[in-house]
Amino acid sequence: MSNTPMAASPLTRAVLEIDEYASGLGWDQPARLFALVDTARLRAHEPVLAAQLGLQDESGTTGLTPIEQDEIPTGKALDEFLGTIAWPDAVAGCALTVERLMLPPSAEAQVPQGMSEAKLAKWVASHPERQEVRMTVAVLRDGTRESAVRLREKDTPTEVLTGPDLVPGLAEALKATFED
In Å, how far from its chain's centre is CA 160? Predict the structure, then answer.
């Protein structure tokens, strides 16, 4: 968490920590899923894992620890995959980081109607105003959410946009992983 602001909420710090981690891996990466666990609870109930994660010396800190999960299958649509997830009670929340192409709001009026998803993706990929973005979205069991969005063309920690409602559809899909 070297560049995360300490005044931020634990969820914001976790999102920025994941964004920083993903940034260190470079671009053109697959989506990554993380469980978010209460750091104090992790130290108390899983001291060996906490030690492996370098958390044994942080007894005074509270917050959330992101734990990367197994690789997301590439042959399945992301929303279908998220529909198969069930978290154990020890998981306080979850986060996902994913790269996408997006268009600015000014280009939305140009989107052709009635295109298949594949043709629309191709159209967006060839649009001159497209932006490559990395989105990191996290939700807690109680519905609290946070997001970080990083543009590839402005790939610095000071240019990361954060807020709870930046990627509402993905936040809702993640929240659904906690529903019975």
Answer: 13
Cross-strand pairs, 33: 96
Strand partners, 162: 148
CA distances from 63 to 15, 76, 86, 106 (A): 12, 32, 22, 39
First to last CA, the chain: 33
**Length reported for the chain:** 180
**pLDDT tens for residues 64-117?**
989 999 888 888 888 889 989 999 998 999 999 999 888 777 777 787 788 887
User: What is the Cα–Cα distance from 67 to 128, expressed in whole angstroms?
Assistant: 37
Sheet with 145-151: list strands edge to edge.
64-68, 32-38, 93-102, 131-140, 145-151, 161-163
Cβ atoms < 10 Å from Cβ of 136 = 31
